[in-house]
Amino acid sequence: MKKLAIMGAMEEEIEPLLAYFENVKVTEYADNKYYEVVYNGLDIVVAYSKIGKVFASLTAATMIEKFSCDTLLFSGVAGAINPKLKIGDLIIADKLCQHDLDITAFGHPSGFVPGGSVFIETSKELREVAKEVAKQNSLNVLEGTIATGDQFVHSNKRKEFIEKTFHADALEMEGGSVAVICNALKVPFFILRAISDSADMDAGFDFDEFLKSSAETSADYLIKIVDKLNK
Fold first, then answer.
1. Of 18, 85, 140, 169, which residue has the fewest beta carbons closer than 10 angstroms?
2. How far apart, in Å, are the Cα atoms of 89 and each of 25, 27, 62, 149, 170?
């Protein structure tokens, strides 16, 4: 690993990460900001993409092609499908799919296009490091399938379709597209998500407060993973 990319979808998801770094260089490109740092001798580029698959694809490709990152870590929030996942739990993706990619009218399965595949696997090596770090720090982290789509899914019927079709454990709006970019460009990648909503969520749940605390927890976890990777 020569240069590491760390992505989030929202600004709030990368702010706690940037607090770990000094002498941050900001580069503006393609209507976005990229934060370049040197951390314990490792070159790192941090950015938030904005929400959705198109913005996430643009940012991931830019970090790889323009900034020459050769490994990518993504951190953000997701909704639970697996009933074992509760608000605040962490999940790392073993594979991802796009639940809203649909050309079934032409006889193809949901999530598939010719020349592509329904699922893309994340880096096993990065997952093993992440699980080792979680164990060392007594963090309960689930490994499972994450489904991506350009919609905030709040319908139980839609969640049931995604669970039945893709056997997904969680869903969000960026990871599957980042997976396509990294897979095509042969860049190892890792997707971490904190659960922000679940089937049994409290009606009084404060998303903004959760986002702040979750981002801090995820940032601490990611930095420990980076330290492990950089040894």
1. 140
2. 33, 33, 30, 21, 11
